[in-house]
Give the backbone structure.
Amino acid sequence: MDLVFAIGFQVMSGVATLLITSLGLAIIFGMMRVINLAHGEFLMLGAYAAILSAREGLNIWISMLVVAPLVVGGIGFVVERFIIRRLYGRMIDTMLATWGLSLALIGAVTMVFGNTVAGFSAPLGSFAIGGFTASAYALFLIFAAVVLLGGTWAILRFTAFGLLARGTMQNAEMASALGVSPDRVYAATFAAGSAVSGLAGALIAPFSGVVPTMGAAFIAKSFITVITGGAAMLAGTFSASSLLGTVSTLGTFATTPVFGEVMMLAVAIVLLRLLPQGITGRFFRRAL
Amino acid sequence: MKFLIEIAGASVVVIAAILVLPRFLELFALINATVYISMAVLALSLALVWGFGGILCFGQAAFFGLGGYSYAVAAINFGDTTYAIPVAIAVPALMAAALGYVMFYGRISDVYMGAITLTLTLILFNFVNSTAGDQWRIGAAPLGGFNGIPSTPPLNLPGDPGNPLPPESIFAIAAISLLLCYILAKFILRARFGRVIVAIRENERRAELLGYDARAYKLGIFVIGGAMAGLSGMLFANCVFVSPTMFSLFYSGQIIIWVMVGGLGTLVGPVIGAILLNFFTTWAGTLPDINPSLILGAILMLAVLVVPRGVLPSLTTLLGRLRGAGDAPGDAA
Amino acid sequence: MTALLATEHLTMRFGGVVAVDDVDLNVADGELRCLIGPNGAGKSTLFKCLTGQIKPSAGRILWRGRDITGLESFEIARLGVGIKTQVPSLFDGLTVLESVRLALRREARERVARARAMATLEQLGIADLAQHATALLAHGQRQLVELAMVVAPAPDLIILDEPTAGMSAEETARAAHVIRALNASHAIIVVEHDMPFIRAIAKKVTVLHQGRVLMEDDVASVLADRRVQDVYLGKAADASLKVIA
């Protein structure tokens, strides 16, 4: 019984981590058809923002939940202005340019902070159910994933900005004919997606450790989760991270982390063979 | 005619380099030059796959690393390096065949291809990194985890494993390999296979409506590219030794940068791009407080934003215009 | 006699929409057949099924009696079917001669292939374009280059999707002439909705309406048919039809 609990909890926290670390990329890809290959470095910057402000004496929760998304959202705004905007409609070029950005950010952060692992221990301690002890922070991550997903859905569904964003996503020309500036919507969307990535980086920092190269561990998984999810970004990210997160966690549990990743890639490839448009190309098509 | 002149020109340059450079370069510089040449072979492989085949492969480093590791493992087990060379070419080629079959016959789009090749590279990176410890060995060869295989043996004369070749010979072998790969690529592109490949890059649907099986052609060029990358990994392993960084995103990114800077749709461009950029990053690495990643990343961003056609082709066009020559050398291969 | 190309109960559904509904079509060797119908009648879906771009939901496609349902585009092309798309689909990075040479897939001898490609270009009156880059050609020239690529390997059947789209009246008349000449040596299926053009070339016409075959007869009877006038042209176009008929 305890083992079932333990595995179930591991799976849920694996899924939550995948979802949190993919959501920023999914928002940007879903709304703008832009693949941001510097996504992993946005996570890294979020982690650094959190750890540095916590070291300056700021409350750890404020550092993670407020400072990290604000800083990375701001960086995203600048990146959109100077790089992404010049390359709209050129998907491959955007991928190449953001890959360049990714390398440049790794280099720049290494120059400033050095290539050493910084870290902070997970707040909240641990809790026990029966004979099984788990980190309370992992429980918090699951909670955070639910809140992030629900919050993004609510913003898109109920707010004026969400309506503008969905309208622009459906038909940019029509939206601009109605007086909405697609440039501004894209800028805001990219900044928002970056902010979510920054928050994600701060949230996973206690588990992953903070190094300039930490993004590499996440970019491929996020990338493959987002395209496996398909066009509907929230339903897609949710279903893909549930499936792939479960597969990789169970694979890791049964053997080694590397084998978990291999299983995840294998499942993703099989899925893309069966559903070339991703999961939401076939199911939940009307979802957000 | 132009075809023969280009091949003759390349041969002269390579032979001159083999004759001259070892006299002037110190040992360390000569080994570095050999590394650059192995990188040039790698650039050539992606120039074929991406520049001519139009296949966006983010994971050319995977074949590079596989080639290096296959060579090291095979050479340690055989005790003689001769038959390790075909292994270093065959293993990445087989991997490319399996991966390419899944991607092309599954008719997966560009973005998905990028995601899959990238993920595969990272998985290999993580896998090799996790092979520290004595249980991870293939035959007599320990994989060594993040330390790699420091005992990677250098090439020897066939049948004479006691006599490893000196760096001068390995430099010559690398240079000749580069020349042969270039000539092979020229012949491929001149042959019907190569022209169909270019036609598929230009318009895949039209090629299919004319009766060409685009999947098979793409698979073909992808396997050739994988084999060539494997060879370059073998050459690299001879200068340094194999380690998991061969599979890293840093390498994958660099290969893309060489080809991007050298120009898509040319062969010489990426080769020159690889050699120049390697000189440049090595030099930049000696500067205090400058990280080569920063420079490479900035170059890639600028190349995409300012000169998406490639830096070298744009420069040649510019020079041509300055000389008053009218024709843009757009199709120079 | 076995038909060159036939469909049996061919059906294509997209979700709840039936774009092609139980279509039986028989095209004989050497025939010139027009497929007409208003927008949304299922012409282009049928074209995509016949050319292997999509796989039909039900029914069969037969080539000389052999089931070819679900073959890939390139396999259908290899049977001896030349396909011309609506918007010219060309190799923009190649020259006109190189493009037509590639169309001669089965000819391995370079010299022979080039000579045959040149001959095709001369036949279509565009030999002077041989060394031009296809990317730089005008629309009408692009149409002819694509036609040259389709005709060069001497296919048994040519399928043309709206060959006169974007053409002037004069160009349309010339295209009609070219197609009639081609019919001397190839069977042809033309998907079209330009009425004067159909009148100029067609012998037998199949009318599609809402995915089904509405009628199939010689061109004069089809154009005179009341039902065709109603569904195909609507009331606004009645006048023009009378002028033609």
Residues 5-89+155-244 of chain C form a domain with the Rossmann fold fold (CATH 3.40.50.300). Chains C and A do not touch (no CB pair under 8 Å). The CA atoms of residues 62 and 175 of chain C lie 29 Å apart.
